């Protein structure tokens, strides 16, 4: 199936590893040139090398802290300059610290809002002039199943990521007449470093071996196993494609059926 992505240009946040990396590689395999950014320059360079080696696409890498507005301005502009266009933005950033409401102070809340809400707002705002020129841009936000089913001890993530959903739904209606789509993808039970660290934290709290904690997590998934980042990337690639031109304002989970919420 031709997804109509060849020659397009995308910017993917948090793309040195995990889901962001899988998304960048998935888009590149479809012929989309990719701008990748993250804080880890070594991992970024390795990802860019993999993309150039395994695909026909170009990869442009930039060190960026998604919580810093000046970094976002720079990477959006430099990616657009590198490829002469920007058609797709994938908003993705690592999750904030874990804990309960009583454990969080003002700095924790502000950091979470900057990293997981304002980063999506700022990147979209900076990219929008380029997306409008592309004649049918795509905004895809990587959030979490927590937006449909809040997760204990993730109060910062539960709060900030729901803000992204509200922004995206409203924006999808505002931009629909221009052919620009805005959608959200919600990973759950995906074997990333973030999930493994959460499972490890739970194992320590409950006095479990890591293997036991992973087995418990897998039993919560109707499919019986943790997912991989490529499973999320496949949905993102489709939503970025020309085939998804009539899909906007949606929030779709990729979780092996573990979320019990109806919508």
Would you tell me the structural class of the helices and strands? alpha/beta
What is the H/E string? Answer: EHEHEHEHEHEHHHE
Strand content: 5-15%
What's the main sheet like? 7 strands, parallel
- The separation of the N and C termini measures 29 Å
| Low-pLDDT runs | none
Number of strands: 7
Query: Treating each run of at least 4 consecutive H or I residues as one helix, how many helices?
Result: 8
Strand order of the largest sheet: 3-2-1-4-5-6-7
Radius of gyration: 18 Å
- The whole-number mean of residue pLDDT values reads 96
Task: Sum up the structure in keywords.
7 strands; seven-stranded parallel β-sheet; 8 helices; single chain
Report what the structure shows.
By secondary structure, this protein is an alpha/beta fold. It is 48% helix and 13% strand. The protein is built from eight helices and seven strands. It has a seven-stranded parallel beta sheet with strand order 3-2-1-4-5-6-7, sandwiched between helices. Strand 5 (138-142), helix 5 (155-175) and strand 6 (181-187) form a beta-alpha-beta unit. Helix 1 (18-29) crosses helix 8 (229-240), helix 3 (69-83) runs parallel beside helix 4 (106-134) and helix 4 (106-134) packs parallel to helix 5 (155-175). The longest helix is centred in the middle third of the chain and has 29 residues, at 106-134. It is globular and about 55 Å long. The mean pLDDT is 96.
């Amino acid at each position: 199936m031709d997804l109509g992505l060849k020659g397009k240009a995308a910017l993917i946040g948090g793309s040195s590893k995990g889901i962001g990396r899988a998304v960048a590689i998935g888009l590149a395999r479809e012929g989309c040139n990719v701008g990748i950014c993250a804080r880890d320059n070594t991992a970024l360079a390795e990802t860019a090398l993999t993309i150039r080696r395994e695909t026909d696409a170009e990869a442009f890498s930039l060190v960026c802290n998604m919580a810093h507005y000046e970094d976002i301005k720079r990477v959006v502009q430099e990616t657009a300059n590198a490829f002469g266009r920007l058609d797709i933005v994938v908003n993705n950033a690592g999750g904030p610290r874990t804990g309960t409401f009583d454990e969080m102070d003002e700095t924790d809340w502000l950091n979470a809002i900057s990293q997981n809400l304002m980063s999506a707002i700022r990147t979209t705002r900076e990219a929008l002039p380029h997306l409008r020129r592309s004649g049918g841009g795509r905004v895809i936000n990587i959030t979490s199943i927590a937006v449909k089913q809040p997760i204990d001890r993730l109060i910062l993530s539960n709060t900030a990521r729901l803000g992204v959903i509200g922004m995206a739904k409203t924006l999808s209606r505002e931009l629909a007449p221009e052919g620009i789509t805005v959608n959200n993808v919600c990973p759950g039970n995906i074997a990333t470093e973030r999930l493994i660290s959460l499972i490890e934290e739970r194992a320590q709290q409950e006095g479990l071996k890591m293997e036991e904690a992973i087995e418990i997590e897998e039993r919560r998934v109707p499919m019986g196993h943790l997912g991989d980042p490529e499973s999320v990337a496949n949905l993102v690639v489709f939503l970025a494609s020309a085939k998804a031109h009539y899909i906007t304002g949606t929030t779709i989970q990729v979780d092996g059926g573990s979320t019990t919420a109806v919508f």
